[in-house]
């Protein structure tokens, strides 16, 4: 049985012709059921076409980047600073993945491009190409989704490998806190998917051990970077009459208020 193929152009054509049968959704949050999202463009009456495992095809007013921003800023442990820190550690120059350990949201183009299509790698089992596009087949093997590759298929394939490695590193950091109990990306639970990559997992865990990196250490680095940015904003950019030493004291006192107390 040949898998049915879908693409951004396919959905844009159906929407323009008034033949798209997707349900209109007043709101949507990226979660475990998310499979993919195509940005239909600013001229479209509905900005985003979402495919969800539980809810089917949905039309959403928000852009894919707005959906992604809400997920990163409101739901993702470590938020964007940790995602960026992992990119820097792996020397990934162009960010095209957001990792969550149990899953990873990938885009063949930069996450900061004008139009961004998103796909959950844990919902896909096969990778190939079709007329220059990146083609991903879902877990059931019934649907094949095509994604434009601004820099060619070879580069998109490399970016996908970087995404798997990025997610493996995210997993490894949390393994250091909670062990490897029940991690679907590492212990081969459930269906085969593109995110399962034990060789990446072993490699990044070896790097962490060699460099002595930990989740706690990276989060401490991020907190210090925020402190320095706040100091620059208040003392240098806004020229407030504050001494740097006074600001450091104030920040430490604030941090104490949010610490666990016996």
UniProtKB/TrEMBL annotation:
It comes from the Bacteria. This is Uncharacterized protein. It comes from Lactobacillus nasalidis.
């Amino acid at each position: 049985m040949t898998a049915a193929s879908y693409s951004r152009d396919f959905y844009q054509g159906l929407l323009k012709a008034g033949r798209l049968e997707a349900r209109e959704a007043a709101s949507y949050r990226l979660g475990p059921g998310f499979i993919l999202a195509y940005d239909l463009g600013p001229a479209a009456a509905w900005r985003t076409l979402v495919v969800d495992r539980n809810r089917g095809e949905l039309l959403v007013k928000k852009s894919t980047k707005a959906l992604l921003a809400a997920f990163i800023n409101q739901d993702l442990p470590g938020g964007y600073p940790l995602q960026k820190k992992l990119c820097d550690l792996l020397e990934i120059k162009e960010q095209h993945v957001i990792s969550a350990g149990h899953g990873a949201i990938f885009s063949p183009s930069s996450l900061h491009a004008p139009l961004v299509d998103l796909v959950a790698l844990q919902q896909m089992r096969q990778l190939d190409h079709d007329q220059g596009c990146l083609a991903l087949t879902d877990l059931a093997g019934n649907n094949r989704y095509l994604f434009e590759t601004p820099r060619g298929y070879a580069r998109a394939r490399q970016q996908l490998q970087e995404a798997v490695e990025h997610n493996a590193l995210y997993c490894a950091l949390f393994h250091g806190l909670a062990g490897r109990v029940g991690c679907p990306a590492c212990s081969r639970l459930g269906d085969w998917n593109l995110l399962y990559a034990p060789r990446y997992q072993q490699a990044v865990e070896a790097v962490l051990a060699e460099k002595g990196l930990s989740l706690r250490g990276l989060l401490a680095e991020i907190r210090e970077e925020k402190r320095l940015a706040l100091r620059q904003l208040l003392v240098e950019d806004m020229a407030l009459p504050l001494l740097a030493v006074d600001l450091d004291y104030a920040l430490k006192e604030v941090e104490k208020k949010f610490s666990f107390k016996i």
